[in-house]
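Session log. Operator J.P. requested a structure for one protein chain; no other inputs attached. Running the standard single-chain path with token output.
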Amino acid sequence: MSNTTLVNLATVGSDELQTMPVAVFTAGLEQMSADAIVRFRRMRKLSDTHKVALERFLNDHPEKRAGQEGTSSAAQPSDKTGNRSRKKSSEATLWMEMLLRAIAWWEGMDTDDVARAKGIKRRRKKKKAASPPAAAAPAPKPAAAPAPPPPAPPTRVEFVQMLWGEGFSLPGGEDFAVRLASAADFTKDGHYLDLAPGLGGGTRAVAKKYGVTLSGIEADAEFAAAAAAISGVAGMAGTAPVRAAGPEGLDMEDFEPAGAYAAIFMRETMFAVEERGRMLATMHKALSDEGSLVLTDFVLAGDAGDRSAMPGAVTQWLAAEASNTYPWTEAEYRAALEAQDYKVERFDDLTAAYLPFIKEGLRRFHDCLQNAKFPPETLTTLMREGNIWLARSQALETGQLSFVHIHARRISPSLTGEDDVEEPDAAPEHAAENDE
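Structure written below.
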């Protein structure tokens, strides 16, 4: 089935629905009325990916929500008497009101939308009868304090911390960050560089654990500012400083002085670097002899095969990342490292340990959406963030994508038996092909 084929979602089987691409699913929604979408949502069990796609579609097409102007959910009554009878019989009892709220929570809908879809009039609190006038007017009461404004919706930085913990923008927390970094050799006077610190949680954990200074350079300016502030509050502005990269990303000045760093770290980022061969060469130049390169990244299983016919979950993950790059396989990764004069010490698959961290974060994401209401612009940002991690989780579960932990050491070019050393501005041929 191509992404442009229109389908009737009400007639597709459960197995076909579960594997249906998001683009086809969304195209099917466009052909349905508001009432049809409500019935479809109530009767069919949707995957997490389809739930996210449905919410995004309804945010973009408010006219498709039940009860909006231009929709019709029930036939008009034939006479006024029948109309009054229906209104009276469809008014929610206390028990029905509780049931409506339960259905709304389960379906992820607004309670009023569920009531309109079912033709039920919600109960309203009765107003107290006015007290008879007293013989003498009572003394005026002092004016009540104004009600506090509703809490502001969480910012992107606050939301990310809801998922992964205070000060963190990646799964795993302190223990996992220290476990990954432990592959490097730490000395009190060594220089260490983190090229993907995010909000700095892992950077601070490693600096504190080994008593070293670990400097971070973060590509996301918003995260970098927040990380620097958190390090300052924690009293670690000197041992775990984080600054933003330039507007064009990392440049050669970020890796100076050459040969100064005992270890360089980068988490879950290399797969999105367009010129990975050049990046590996630049980091090699910044490392000291026998210095460590410690990476975590996503790699494709096997030899990748035909990259135009990848499994649906992997294709959806690449679409969610909104990146034109393509991840390497393990063989391609090893070849690129060896081409840039690294000795691979370990290449471990940690998918089984990593997946539970993502799923715990997604549970917190679900609870956040259920327990709070957000303005559309905030909800769009949160849904985009959540959809990326949902897509990563589903791709990892297929076995076609793996989360790997890599430790490689810089070796001197003279030890390779080659006279010429490739300059940082020239990426290996196989890496350039994968970046196209």
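Operator note: DSSP finds 17 helices and seven strands in the chain.
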